[in-house]
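If you are new to this repository, start here. Below is one unmodified record pulled from the training split, so you can see the exact layout before writing a loader.
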Amino acid sequence: MVDNGAITAAAIGHVAYEILQNEINANVCGNTSKGLFAVTDKKRILFISHQKFKGPLTVNINENLPAHQALSNNGYLLLSPNRIKFIQPAMEIKINSQTHVWTPLILNKVDFNLEAFINRSRLIDREMIRQLSDNESDFTSCNIRNIANQGQAQEIQTNIKNNLKSSLSSRNEVAAFEPLSNLLGCGEGLTPSGDDFICGFLLAAHAWKEILFPGFALQEAIQKIIEVAFGKTTTLSANLIACAASGSADERIIRCVKWLNSDGRSAAQIIKELLSYGSSSGLDTLAGMLAFIQSSPIFYQKS
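And here is the target side for that same chain:
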């Protein structure tokens, strides 16, 4: 809704909402066809987008932002709990009672069926491989299966699985995440493929750690990955990794997590939606989720 240069946000992600409560300014750090990115003094990211897809860092608006030189990098924003104010051009985005504060759905673990869960993970793995085979030319630049100098995806995932299994016997949770730290920043773009893979891994750990690795503490290692990310990869990726560690991500990714947990739509439908998330970020994130799931000895016990 536009009112004298003001736009009322249709929705705001729960992390973005929290940022507005605690920070007072930000600078535009990226402007794409899908929206613009702004970074605060504390290296928190806001994504202002006219797209419908919600996410933890996203402020959804129903209007296109004006094409203006001031919205390029270093454009200055003032933040408060109820608005995002652009200095040049003079405009603001209001956050009020009409704005939906989006949070990811809590998974239903009461009726969780492990055998069905494992079958779904195998099904969507096959569907992902089929999509990559059918669209190989579309995934040559940044897909996790094509990261330069990182070897083949199978080798990467096998290394991660072996390290995680080894750490179970030694109770060394930090060692389980050493291969993940090597993926930080690998690839190109605002969210390199290695980072997307890590996001998927951490999302799966948050959702199913107690089921797939009961009694195995991972929090220390997860916190270390977050801390290292802020010095080793893009600020956007580091923010998304922190969100993933707490179980939050773009709603398309969350719908995939929910599907793995309790079914619903077809695997093909889930893959189709993931394909709309970045150039390859959706499938890279799924690959990370599957790597965590397939690292569990329970996965093979149910084979």
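Two things worth knowing about this chain: The CA atoms of residues 190 and 234 lie 7 Å apart. Confidence is low (pLDDT under 50) at residues 137-142, 144-153.
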